[in-house]
Protein 1
Amino acid sequence: MARIAIPLLSLLFAPALLSAQSVVRHKLPNNSTFPIAAAVEVPAGKTMVYLSGKVPSVADEKAEKNSVAAYGDTETQTLSVLKGIEEQLKGMNLGMGDVVRMQAFLVGDPGKDGKMDFAGFMKGYSKYFGTDVQPNLPARSTMQVAALANPGFLVEIEVTAVRP
């Protein structure tokens, strides 16, 4: 009887053991301090949450509608988008530390000869990721795109989070 009971008990407790595993964030090689993960492993049994792309809120109501001036520069837009993501995650009982994957779409800034403002993006991003308060880093891709849905948008970000 004991030979049957022990394997049966291990089957009963296996899901609990699997869900107790945590997300593993692999650092970039060569002691890089760049604030992204080289890779993120999510153990079986975790719930993945996929947020649709988020765009910035209007920063200047007096500026011409649908203009970059209405939404701000890349840093301003990045901060707006990340704040919106943070609020959406909070409403789902999640936080920025639960983000495991990010894709950032940046439009070339007209004020920078049509090149994406990666430095401005990083200024905003670094206020949410890799901080003392929130050290968890997502795997991330950042790309320049030709345009977004509104001509004033320079930034759109989508994330994947994992429920702890």
Protein 2
Amino acid sequence: MPCPSRRTLMKLGATAVLATVSTACSTAGSPTGTAGAPAEHPSASPTGRAVSLPAPTGHWPIGTVDLHLIDRTRHDPLMPSKPFRELMVSVWYPADRGGKFLIAPWLSPAAAADWDKHSAPGMTIKTGAVDWQGIRTHARTGASAARASGKLPVVLFSSGDGGDRALGTTLVEELASRGYVVVTIDSTYEVDQVEFPGGRVERAAPLPKKLTPKVIAALLEKHSRTRVADAHFVLRQIEALAHGRNPDTQGRPLPAGLPAVMDLSRMGMFGQSLGGSVAAQLAHDEPRISSAANLDGEFFGPVIRTGVTKPFLLMASDVNSFDSNASWKSFWAASTGWKHALHLRKALHGSYTDLQVIFPQLTDHMKIPAAPELIGTINPRRSLAAQRAALTAFFDLHLKQRPTTLFENPSSRYHEMEVLR
């Protein structure tokens, strides 16, 4: 196999990566280029295959806003030359109907162009083959928050290692449409590309030239610590936002009514892959995070040994199990709160990302050799429906105190989903 980009590292999960990439990358450098270099912005291909995202199923229309945040209290741990840590986050929320607001893109323009050139080839998709810039969400940028929704729980989202925050859009939009404020976080210099205001793109720091299992494990531990610190910082900015202050570095206008719908007494977090481990650690560290979910991620850091005392949902693909993943076994044994583990049959690690619904739209028209090892053979619509149902039921139960029977017998509604623990 070729030396993997971060997108490839994301696809199998940390456990499988440790076993597969060390030989392939023993002498190769990172294909992701130089971090902080000026981004090239090729035009979108006029013949690129069009892709759409499934609409959320909740009652509320959705709004979204991007925030540029700077943490001046610490040097950037992934780019030591930077005297501060710089992040992009997006806030998704129930919105009022009406108003002339543009539909938000899945990826911002410069990030989409960079993805087309650098990230898509790592997933065996040729540059220009897909109209990545044309993918649209179902959220209107800057739309007024729906005050009629009342005070809403706030949930944070963290993607897999190297994964753009956009890769969780289908799940994030579902939660927002069902009455949640969701904050998605990018990890600058770890993610393939992050676009900042003005079209500046910061790319991922180069991977070490020799990716041995020991090097990869240390890298993932470092990324985990960085993301946990990022999440603590973002929580402080969310608190400022809820109290009517604008944390955006440029001071760009916030959506009308957004602070009024945020209820910081009910907060949770979920993530895919590495992001799921970050969610667990934050639930352990932060009194404000009262429940968390991990979508098929290995655990890293102290939480492996300490577990959590709060409600926790673990969702597995065919890649991970309690028998094959020592971090799962240790975390589960140490966790003493409400906990439930579900397994999606025929799903793989990338099934818990938007690739689950994007790839099937492409494979009828082009060959994508990486697709089977990324998303498995599960029916994509059923996979997404089961994930949305489980995640919503979990947060409804623990942040809204709405009872559910889904976890007792999930196979009665989704034959692809079974109780793992």
